[in-house]
Amino acid sequence: MATIKDVAKVAGVSISTVSHVLNGTRFVSPDTAEKVMSAVAGLHYAPSAVARSLKQSRTRTLGMLVTRSANPFFAEVVQGVEDACYRQGYQLLLSNTANDEQRQLACLQSLVERRVDGLILLSIADTPLLRQQLSTLSEMPLLLLDTDIAGVKALRVKGDSIKGGYQAAHCLLAQGRREIGFIGYTARHPVTEERLKGVRHAVAEQGVGIPDSWVVDGDLDCESGYSAMRQLLDLPERPDAVIAANDLMAMGAMRAIQEQGLRIPDDIALVGYDDIALTAYTSPPLTTIRQSGEKMGQVAAETLITAIAGSGGCECSVVIEPELVKRGTVPVSEQRSH
Question: Can you tell me the distance from the alpha carbon of 112 to that of 118, in angstroms, rounded to the nearest whole number?
Fold first, then answer.
């Protein structure tokens, strides 16, 4: 296997000149650079990424923790991160935590040991153990993506969840619905709490409220959306509209409603959140709040890489605006009186 010394010998230059040509760290005359690259091609020389990273104290690698990359929205976000990494000459190491706290801590430690240049945490629940572990990583650039962790010094990229929740509720209120329930994961997920806060704000403007029994927690997947909706349907007085913290829960809720022989949106209107690709193909198509996962991922990776290069702040915050997408699970022209 050829070495950098072999390349220097064939090209008739010093080892440092070969290094400058390959890394672009200093001007080298076109003739000399051509000799070096010709020698590289002739010897089939492949520079050692490990050796280069040790010398430069960088691996050009980002680490990313995600609760479940199988979630379609998270998959879109990861795709955006990977695209941005590719354009910037970075690689991505991805770890799924399965929403398990101990696995989350182990994955985080593993990424640190692999000497990643920066970390992205996507929709990770805020826990005391996580805060404690992150406090030991003060020298590593950190970006919180669509989540928040109290007291942690980090870059932040997130959707405006309060505004998104407000838009979802306002859409229902505009059609005369006043009895609005909410299914999500408010117990440990700050973003879900913000969406509920936006819903409550919109409802309060109309002089009504949301009973505690109409707010049901789940696990942000289809199964828990189904179970949460069943719980609402079993109440003596059920809501006539429901907002889900994400589209997966909304899809589970849709099945529960239809199994009871109820009609969407006539009997119960429904709004999701995220606008994953599947929502346009449900029956009826799901009204939802769009936040581009791919855009969020791209912005997150670009922001973190800029900070790693030392040309960006370590605590900046970028907010992605939400957008209401009207489809078939909310009436289009109804003004019901109560």
Answer: 9
Residue 233 structural domain: 161-291
| Nearest Cα residue to 221 out of 77, 324, 99, 320 | 99
| 231 and 282 together in one domain | yes
Q: Is there a single domain that holds both residue 224 and residue 315? A: no
What are the phi and psi torsion angles at 299 (to 5°)? -65, -40
Task: Kindly report whether the peptide bond that precedes residue 265 is cis, defined as omega within 30 degrees of 0.
Answer: yes
pLDDT digits (tens, 9 = 90+) for 235-278: 999 999 999 999 999 999 999 999 999 999 999 999 999 999 99
* CB burial of residue 35 (10 Å; 0-12, 13-18, 19+): buried
* Peptide bond just before 284 cis, omega within 30 deg: yes
pTM for this one? 0.78
Q: Which CATH number do you get for residue 103?
A: 3.40.50.2300
Query: And the tokens for 14?
Result: 């010093």
Backbone phi, then psi, for 220, in 5-degree steps?
Answer: 60, 30
Distance CA 152, CA 4 (A): 43
Residue 12 counted as domain residue: no
Same domain as 151, residue 90: yes
User: Which residue is it, tokens 């909304």?
Assistant: 250
Same domain assignment for residues 175 and 280 = yes
Q: Are 184 and 195 in contact (CB under 8 A)?
A: yes
